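Incident log, support desk, overnight shift.

02:14 A customer reports that sequence design results differ from what the structure should imply. Their input is reproduced verbatim below. On-call engineer (initials T.W.) acknowledged and began investigating.
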């Protein structure tokens, strides 16, 4: 490896090199969508949503009520759009929306999960984002041993995947994404 010479830094500050410099400020993202995939993640997402963000929107899943037969407690599937199931989301203000509506204008979707992350929702979000060319990220909160099955569910659908036990990392990742 060749060392960086002191004269190299001097060359970078010349007027000839300055014409290649980009002086425009980095623009914020058009829209980050942060979606909690389970109850534990919903608590974290609601706390993080209270901070100041650019154009980020925060959601939890609308889950169906468990029946006496034991069915339910998963995300409410709505209607399939071109073979990809749409799911119902709840904004942090309490109003409901559909995933397909919220992905309009989004350029990144961040899925936040704990030990009970919904594989159905991860699949629906991942497939919908892939069809629209939206980057996806996954943040899994908990000890690595406890979140292994959540990782398996998110891995095919998250281009970036972080396992952490510190919920502050959610805010740090969103800051890094200019959310």
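02:41 Re-run completed on a clean worker. Output:
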């Amino acid at each position: 490896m060749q060392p960086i010479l002191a004269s190299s830094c001097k060359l970078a500050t010349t007027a000839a090199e300055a014409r290649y410099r980009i002086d425009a400020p980095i623009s914020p993202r058009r829209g980050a969508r942060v979606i909690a995939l389970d109850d534990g993640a919903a608590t974290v997402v609601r706390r993080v949503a209270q901070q100041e963000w650019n154009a980020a929107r925060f959601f939890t899943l609308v889950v169906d009520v468990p029946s006496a037969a034991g069915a339910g407690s998963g995300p409410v599937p709505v209607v399939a759009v071109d073979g990809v199931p749409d799911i119902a989301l709840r904004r942090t203000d309490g109003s409901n929306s559909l995933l397909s509506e919220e992905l309009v204008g989004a350029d990144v979707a961040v899925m936040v999960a704990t030990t009970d992350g919904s594989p159905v929702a991860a699949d629906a979000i991942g497939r919908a984002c892939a069809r629209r060319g939206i980057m996806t990220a996954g943040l899994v909160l908990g000890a690595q041993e406890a979140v292994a099955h959540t990782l398996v569910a998110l891995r095919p659908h998250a281009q970036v995947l972080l396992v952490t036990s510190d919920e502050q990392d959610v805010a740090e990742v969103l800051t890094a994404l200019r959310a």
